[in-house]
Design brief:
Layout (H helix, E strand, L loop, with lengths): L3 H86 L1
Length: 90
């Protein structure tokens, strides 16, 4: 027959097992959360870098389009002058 002392050992062993399992689960959970946070920070830095590159590219494109617009305006002026000269010659 089991006396009260044997049950105490079983309950104590179960309690110790539950405590160790809880502590290990908490440690693993926190490690995973920390790792996810680090990965998220790296991902955000990469997105920020991509966004900065996109902004720089857009600014360069805007400058280039402005230059092209100025060139087209100058060409239009020259074409208008050439048309007037040709109409005068005719």
């Amino acid at each position: 027959m089991m006396d009260g002392h044997d049950w105490t050992e079983v309950v104590g062993a179960f309690g110790l097992f539950a405590l160790v399992t809880t502590v290990l689960t908490t440690i693993i959970w926190q490690f995973a959360a920390t790792r996810r946070a680090k990965v998220q920070v790296v991902r955000e830095l990469e997105y920020r870098k991509i966004a900065e590159q996109a902004v720089a590219t857009q600014q360069q494109t805007e400058i280039r389009l402005r230059e092209i617009g100025e060139t087209l305006t100058a060409l239009k002026g020259r074409m208008d002058a050439l048309e007037r000269i040709l109409q005068t010659v005719e």
